[in-house]
Amino acid sequence: VLSEKPTTFTITVTSEAGENDETVQTTLKFTYRERYPDETPLYEIVSQENLDDNDTVNIIKLLEQQAEENLGMVMIFTLVSAVQEKLNEIVDQIKTRREEEKKQKEREAEEEEKQRFHGTPVTIENFLNWKAKFDAELLEIKRKKMKEEEQAGKNKLSGKQLFEMDHNLDTSDIQFLEE
Predict the structure, then answer these.
(1) pLDDT confidence of residue 163
(2) Separation between Cα atoms, residue 69 and residue 108, nearest integer Å
(3) Are 40 and 72 in contact (CB under 8 A)?
(4) Which residues of 55-82 are buried (b: 16+ CB within 10 A; e: fewer)?
(5) How far apart are CA 17 and CA 152, in angstroms?
(6) In this protein, which residues make up the domain named RWD (predicted)?
(7) What are the residue ranges spanned by the domains of the chain?
(8) For position 139, what pLDDT does the model report?
(9) Residues with Cβ within 8 Å of residue 75, at least 6 apart in sequence
(10) Percentage helix, strand, coil for the chain under 3-state DSSP, each rounded to 5
(11) Exposure check for the chain: N or C terminus, fewer CB within 10 A?
């Protein structure tokens, strides 16, 4: 209660916890007029949390509608209940929007994955061109390998050359057998 003459008070309305314990909240300020409940109370939104301007406008419109419908009756509880339901709807809309964004991202990722694996259609001409390039690459690899083997073969000595270089090898087998 902010004042007695005229009676002014605030009520904080919070939605039920949404995804990740996310809530929306608003603080409403009500001021009774002299002829309340035969005329609507004055109301305004003092503060808000996680609400955009469009949601705030919708809440004010809802308050106006509910106040007109409930003229002649005590209506603060009805107004606060309507705002509570509206806040719960907003949380549901936020949740739905996030799920849609998540699904959209998944669809985009799936399309991107499909594009990555979608290649060129194979035709006879494509295949023959690829085969010619592939055969040329294999031939080049074989040539390089043969050159390397030739160069390595020049450095290797044959058995006869080894025996001619080191005469100790002539008698090494005989000594091994005698032992």
Answers:
(1) 72
(2) 47
(3) no
(4) beeebeeebeebbeebeeeebbeebbeb
(5) 76
(6) 1-90
(7) 8-100
(8) 95
(9) 37, 40, 41, 66, 67
(10) 65, 15, 25
(11) C
Sequence letter at residue 78: T
* Residue closest to 61 by CA, chosen among 35, 79, 74, 39: 79
Question: In this predicted structure, what is the pLDDT of residue 134?
Answer: 96
Q: Residue written as tokens 């719960």?
A: 88
Number of other CB atoms surrounding residue 85 within 10 Å: 13
Partners of 27 in beta bridges:
12, 47
Cis peptide before 41 (omega within 30 of 0): no
Topology of domain 8-100, CATH: Ubiquitin Conjugating Enzyme (3.10.110)
Q: How many CA atoms lie within 13 A of 152 on its CB side?
A: 6
Q: In what order do the strands lie in the sheet with 42-49?
A: 8-14, 25-31, 42-49
